[in-house]
Amino acid sequence: MREGLYAIVGAAGIGEDTESYRIGDALPAAVVTPESEAEVRALMEYAHGGRFPCIVAGNGTHLTHLSPHERPWWLLSTRRLNRVVDYSPQDLVLTVGAGITLQEVQDVLREYNQYLPWNPALPTEATIGGIVSSNRSGSWRYRYGTPRDRLLALRAVLPDGVAFKSGAKVVKSVAGYDLHRLLCGAWGTLAVITEITLKVQPAPAQFEAVGWFTTWQDLPATLASLMRLPIQPDGISVAALRGGAFQGLSGLRAVSQVEWEWGEMTSRQTLTVVGATSEPLSRPRTLTVYGGVGVMDAPTLAQPRTLASPEPQPQPETDTSPPLPYVWMEFSGRPEGVPWQVQQLHAQGYPAEPIDATQLAHLRDWLAPRTHPLLMQIFLRPNEVGEAMARWTELQGVSAMAHAGSGVLYVAADASGLSELLIQRVRTLKSKYRVLNGADWLRAHSDGELHRSPLNAGELRLTHALKNALDERGILPLT
Ligand SMILES: Cc1cc2nc3c(=O)[nH]c(=O)nc-3n(C[C@H](O)[C@H](O)[C@H](O)COP(=O)(O)OP(=O)(O)OC[C@H]3O[C@@H](n4cnc5c(N)ncnc54)[C@H](O)[C@@H]3O)c2cc1C
Questions:
Q1: Which atom of ligand 1 is nearest to the CA of 65?
Q2: Whole-structure pTM value
Q3: Ligand 1 binding pocket includes 479 (Cβ within 6 Å)
Q4: Is the CB of residue 130 below 6 angstroms from any atom belonging to ligand 1?
Q5: Is residue 188 lining ligand 1, measured as CB closer than 6 Å?
Q6: Is residue 117 a part of any domain in this protein?
Q7: What's the pLDDT tens digit per position in 308-360?
Q8: Is the CB of 58 under 6 A from ligand 1?
């Protein structure tokens, strides 16, 4: 198989890095990087003829969702299909090769003061093909919808090597079925996308992210009230991270070692304090301490006093401190509009403080599937998010993050969280969910009962029928 594939693409099209495309224990037998649609067609035709199973990828950041083939398989990476094919700033329409990364696209658009309103994890690695194929969306879905909503057209190659195009480079186009949208969210199971046309938009004049700590008790009411305010954030999110993870978020507002001087804590105890505000130094109203992490009710102290020579604190391998909810919101728009929206939060008494780009990237990248032995996406109504999050994070070794505005909850377990208790909790789940990493573990520990498809029986039947029609030899994987 390898020789046949390599003969089509030549030495330049052979990838050495199989490890980047690992799926669980499975590695590809070959990594092939075609540089044109003609090469993709020839590769798929060859694979179809020889029944050689294939997995399509961009940069491999999000393959954990797939079940690798049981027989040896090869991997087609689009990373050399990375050209800007056509860009018409006056029409807000961009056509690119599927293997270009989101960051590269944003750099091109920035020259014309335009952008794609997407904020995925790992933007320097995520390819547009991977983003469109997964149709995952981040917190900005609340305002901007999903990748499918921006997809105008694409070119793709079917598993038997036949190329097709669907859609048009205009925003209104109603010819035939929306086949291009069918591939959006198909996770590379139906065809290899080679070229993508997207609707872009003018970049906002201003962007600001603000956040604050709250308590589990207050979280549901806080989220409900945020949804009712007359403001239009890009996204409303909540992170429930453990102390160790907070410290990893370097500088999430005032995460620092302090010496606490009031009340009973005069004995030079060292605490990690989060959630301090810029109010003048005064007596704290409330200080809640969770396993060495303190959350203060505002107003508390201006500058947490850093110990003169703080000893580096060894991080426990498994952090057992209870997590804390941190709410953050992102705003973009006209210069006068953004501060006005933040003022509305302050008027409601929320101590919203600016978060910088590094911290935001840190929060966003937390959602990269490979970071967690188990990562699940649970679909809820927005008003269910606060309580659900509190319940999940009671479990040891379990953290969570939510795109609260859209009702998407991410639950992650570290090695210590992979427990029978977690299995039991998944069993009681009433809502739909999708496992982004760790499906094998979940299945193995539940006798196969907790399979990962979020589809119901009817949807599954149609999905299989469609898959058979387009890929009857099973060259591409099943979801
Ligand atoms: C707004 C937004 C927010 C997101 N947030 C997150 C997030 O928080 N965390 C996260 O992990 N992801 C997130 N995603 C999705 C993420 O950007 C992509 O899934 C992924 O990172 C793409 O990277 P990749 O090139 O490494 O794709 P890969 O990991 O290589 O592939 C991802 C999937 O797409 C398929 N695929 C890739 N290229 C093609 C192609 N050309 N043709 C057909 N199938 C293909 C693969 O088979 C695989 O199923 C978000 C996406 C958006 C738009």
A1: 49
A2: 0.84
A3: no
A4: yes
A5: yes
A6: yes
A7: 333 334 444 455 556 778 899 999 999 999 999 999 999 999 888 888 888 78
A8: yes
Per-residue pLDDT at 147 exceeds 70: yes
Which tokens is 384 given? Answer: 């269910």
Report pLDDT digits (tens) over 81-91: 999 999 999 99
In a domain, 94, yes or no: yes
Q: 55 C-alpha vs ligand 1 centroid, how far in Å?
A: 13
User: Residue 41 in contact with residue 161, Cβ under 8 Å?
Assistant: yes
- Does the beta carbon of 123 lie inside 6 Å of ligand 1? no
Residue nearest to atom 28 of ligand 1 (CA): 60
Cβ of 368 closer than 6 Å to ligand 1, yes or no, is yes
| Triad 146, 150, 153: Cα angle to 5° | 130
In a domain, 279, yes or no: no
Q: Does 209 reside within a domain?
A: no
- CATH of residue 131's domain is 3.30.465.10
- The pLDDT tens digits of the residues spanning 448-470 come to 777 656 678 898 899 889 999 99
Q: Domain containing 173: what range?
A: 1-203
What is the tally of structural domains in the chain? 1
Is the CB of 144 inside a 6 Å radius of any atom of ligand 1?
no
